[in-house]
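Researcher: Sequence recovery benchmark, item below. Answer with residues only.
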């Protein structure tokens, strides 16, 4: 289950894909297939989400991993390298970046 909280013992990866309205759905399909049929089956995977902006020019991806090495090992597999070549052909750019959750806010936080 995807949990976004400060101090969680997970590795968070945010990736932004720059695309065009004409290729956005193709890119979303490729990313969905990658998560359903490969990435989510890899050791250390916890959860992920895909988000598309209204203009269909960006896709944002949030994923969580048990540790950095799990994410890096997934990226290094021959299947993921091949999938990333295809994904690269569908977007202008993409870059996965690892983050630590610094703070979170929800409706319970605002009531206190």
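Model:
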């Amino acid at each position: 289950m995807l949990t976004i909280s400060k101090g969680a013992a997970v590795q968070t990866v945010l990736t932004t894909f720059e695309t065009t309205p004409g290729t956005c759905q193709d890119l979303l399909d490729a990313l969905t297939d990658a998560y359903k049929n490969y990435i989510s089956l890899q050791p250390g995977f916890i959860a992920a989400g895909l988000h598309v902006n209204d203009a269909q020019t960006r896709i944002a991806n949030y994923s969580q991993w048990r540790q950095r090495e799990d994410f890096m090992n997934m990226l290094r597999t021959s299947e993921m390298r091949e999938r990333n070549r295809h994904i690269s052909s569908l977007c202008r750019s993409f870059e996965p970046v690892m983050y630590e959750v610094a703070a979170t806010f929800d409706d319970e936080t605002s009531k206190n």
